[in-house]
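Researcher: Last one for today. Full complex below.
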Amino acid sequence: MNPENERELLINMGPQHPATHGVLRLVLEVEGEIVKRCTPYIGYLHRGLEKLAEDLTYVQSLPLTDRLDYLSSMVNNVGFCLCVEKLLGINVPERAKFIRTMLSEMARICSHLVWIATHALDIGAMTVFLYAMRDREKLLELFEMVTGARLTVSYPRIGGVRCDVSNEFLKKLERFIDEFPKRVEEYETLIDRNRVWLKRTKGVGVISAEEAINWGLTGPTLRGSGVYYDVRKFFPYDAYDKVEFDVPVGKNGDIYDRYKCRMLEFRQSVRIIKQCIERLPEGPILADNAPKIRMPASPLKIDKEDVQFEIYVDDKSVEDFIKKFTDIYASVEAPRGELGFYIVCDDSAKPYRMRVRAPSFVHTGALPRLCEGGLIADVIANIGSIDIVLGECDR
Amino acid sequence: MKVKEILTKILLIEIFKGLALTLKMLFSKSVTVQYPFEKRNIHEGFRGRHALVRDPISGDDKCIGCMRCTTVCPSRCIHIKREKRENKMVVIDYIIDASRCVYCAYCVEACPVCALVLTEDYEYSSYERKGLIFNKEKLLKNWDEFSAKWPADYYFNKFWQPPGIDPSRWPKTKREQGPVPLKRGVEIKREVKNEQLPS
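Model: Here's the assembly. Have a good evening.
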């Protein structure tokens, strides 16, 4: 703080602030109510996932990706699997593709429900929080039913998925998505035209389309500014090229438009799930050339120290392929934006370097641009609108 | 049009619509589960507390000490102590550090004899770290505690043979693994013994 300018005040917002969605710390220089400068400090949830992955095989790294964006762990898993499948040249069976798409959209609804809940709670509409959590619980139960866990699912595996879905699950899911659009309408009755909500969101945190692209924003945060970009449409993965859906696009690039985009995405996700259930083909759920979990041949051999960290790829041709020092990038449309995995591999079955392109990290970078010049109260609304998860941001 | 706008503004229509919804919810059925007093049903295959399956015939665990679980564990929280006795590998102790475990159930999938299981138990918090380091005795005790609660006579974990996967990918013992009879099914135990004796 400049001692000559006594009107300015330095405020530490976070890391324990409940509205910073985790452990984000913002240092705000304020003059009265106006934010003059905003500096985000990140790294409070750093676990070194990228470094850890260098010491683990491709199969073992999968549970790590659960912990990136823990609200939509399924999408993270799919992103990692897609990258490794691209690397090893594995074709995923059709059924597995549809199952993945279905569960990814479930994760998207789950994540957006947490977002609408916390975002509305931050701005002051508490009832939405209770209703959104009620519906999320049903989805988590469905996740538990098929994957065995509620949050950190570890469900897909390289070359397919782990377990087949049962008919009981499909029926339950169908019942859920039949009634879910009504639930979305409920949230909208509560906040869509509420004058307090409109005052807090319309015309706040505006970012133009050009600027949003320059900042590298992706996902609903970018689409709120009116840019038509979605990884699912432009670089289709899994079964997204076989289902019909629209990409909702905003206009003004303020908080309200981003909110509106996500609310419309709820309906598109329901549409995708519906089509997936209808068209779910029969067949295997794991590719034939998917890496097996390789185990030591006889118990006597395993006393050698190196076997502890030996590779799991059983196929000789796959091993040869890995020996070529290659790098590969694959991305998915996570609920927050474009989540990319970049893997450089050497002759072992562990990645030489794994880099995660996390949307939350990029969006946190754009936070000063959104907050500066606004009011302190709008900082909270801005954090909510870009929908960051610090687990993904700090990795 | 303008009059309508002014009217909606004065009469707080949108706010009353929201309030009507909350009022309606007041009379709808509650979805809250009063947790410690009433419990939600856990689906089969939930990945919870670790346990070593007690073999109904021998009364001991089934682990053969092949170290596959230690190899596959991403957080490296499984430690097996083995010893060579009379040209045979004997598992002395089997330790799982549950505070490091990430509950991915890779160990359950990798086990060729289906000795290890992540049970559907989820209430096992501890005041000290020691309470979360399970050794062989504790793991077998976990299984007993779990099997006492299990309603059916047989138990089969989903991750022993993940549904939908081609069985040729598993070793023979894993492929032939059926549901495990629990301690209550004493009669089943004898039948199995009788079958084995003549062969």
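Chain B has seven helices and seven strands. The radius of gyration of chain B is 26 Å.
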